[in-house]
Write a structure and sequence with these properties.
12 strands; alpha+beta; 12-stranded mixed β-sheet; elongated; 2 domains
């Protein structure tokens, strides 16, 4: 305890030098804690968007997704699905309803304004699976033709100051009538992925797209299952239904957990790479602490000699200097966390990024900063402890 008190007293006496020597650790702490917090925020945002698909929803996609390998680049290619495959999926026990989705592409023109939302051709079942609230108008009916339901982002771009319901727009050279506008239920403000979310979308009837373009393909089957059914257990039944016509390599059945797993696998790899790179700055900062401590040892020959002359052991001197290294690193961590918190707050207010700084992130930054600082403080502490008191007093 007395060694810690002596170290703290030294830090307070030369606090300016202590703060300056901790700058490197502070910069590294900001890099690590802020990047980890941004990564957590991105994961939370992605999770919310996946959960927006609806409760108990299983997604059937063309192409084979190997969950152990991550993203499959062939997912954007040819789809082998046919309309009768939806009937096969509906026949599986536990399935409530099935929606057919096709990515229509193109954009929307209203007068001299244009927008390029995510254009989706779907069957009316999608609006029952994906629970959304209409701001005005209605969803299109099964017999609908050339009608469009706009998301809130598309509505803001095309009709910023007027009611869009009843107005005509042009989509891929065809005239459509706006019949409904989806309300943006996101109360937490702009999202990093808002432009890729279900708010930046335009829905048109799948039958209309199929009639206008025979080349249109089915890109997704959204399968809603009963609350009593276990998604993982139902996957095998859905696969068996499609296996009657398709090869196993031509489709994949994914639960929400599978979707998040694929995304988080990619996000995790990027996070590890970023943390690895920013950790270099931590070692550089702690190397600076070690350099300052070595200079301090050379400047404090008299103090070390006097302490040993009055009974301090090598162990006492070692722990005093090691505690000093730890305290200098801790000062850097505290400064870095304060800056990170301020930066995270600023990002949340002025940008779509929503960093999430958790106690685990704070603990990680603290342990990393102080731990590496202690490691780099061992050499200066050993050098101080091995000083001969007679030589130290004579040199002084």
């Amino acid at each position: 305890m007395r060694n810690l008190t002596a170290a703290l007293s030294t830090i307070l006496e030369s606090w300016k030098r202590s703060v300056l020597s901790s700058v490197g650790v502070a910069v590294a702490t900001v890099a690590i804690s802020l990047l980890v917090s941004i990564g957590r925020g991105v994961e939370k945002d992605i999770t919310r968007h996946v959960e927006d698909l609806g409760a108990n929803v299983v997604v059937v996609v063309p192409g084979r997704v190997d969950l152990s390998m991550g993203f499959n680049p062939n997912l954007g290619g040819q789809s082998w699905f046919a309309e009768e495959d939806a009937d096969r999926l509906r026949a599986v026990p536990g399935v409530v309803q099935v929606a057919t989705l096709s990515f229509a592409g193109g954009g929307i023109r209203a007068g001299d304004r244009e927008a390029y939302p995510f254009m989706v051709a779907c069957t009316p079942e999608w609006f029952q699976i994906h629970k959304v609230t209409l701001d005005s108008g209605r969803f299109f009916l099964p017999e609908a033709a050339h009608e469009v339901v706009l998301g809130s982002v598309a509505r803001e771009s095309l009709f910023p100051e007027e009611e869009p319901v009843g107005k005509n727009v042009e989509i891929n050279g065809r005239t459509y009538q706006v019949v409904g506008v989806i309300r943006d239920e996101n109360s937490s403000g702009p999202s990093l992925f808002r432009m890729q979310s279900f708010q930046n979308v335009g829905y048109i009837p799948y039958k209309t797209l199929k009639a206008d373009s025979q080349a249109a393909q089915i890109d997704r089957f959204m399968v809603q299952i009963s609350h009593e059914a276990e998604p993982k257990a139902l996957v095998s039944g859905l696969e068996a239904a499609l296996n009657s016509r398709l090869d196993r390599q031509q489709f994949s059945v994914l639960t929400q957990e599978d979707l998040l797993g694929v995304v988080f696998q990619v996000v995790g790899i990027v996070s590890y790479l970023v943390i690895g790179l920013t950790s270099i700055s931590l070692f550089v900062g702690c190397f600076g602490v070690m350099t300052v401590m070595l200079i301090s040892v050379n400047e404090r020959h008299k103090e070390i000699g006097v302490r040993k002359a009055v009974g301090a052991t090598n162990r006492d001197v070692f722990w005093q200097f090691l505690f000093e290294s730890a305290l200098v690193s801790l000062v850097g961590v505290v400064i870095g966390l304060a800056v990170s918190l301020a930066a995270a707050t600023a990002l949340s207010i002025w940008t779509p990024i929503r960093p999430v700084m958790t106690p685990a992130t704070v603990a990680l930054a603290t342990v990393a900063g102080v731990g590496v600082g202690c490691v780099f403080g061992v050499f200066p502490a050993l050098r101080a402890a091995r000083q001969d008191p007679v030589v130290s007093l004579r040199n002084e």
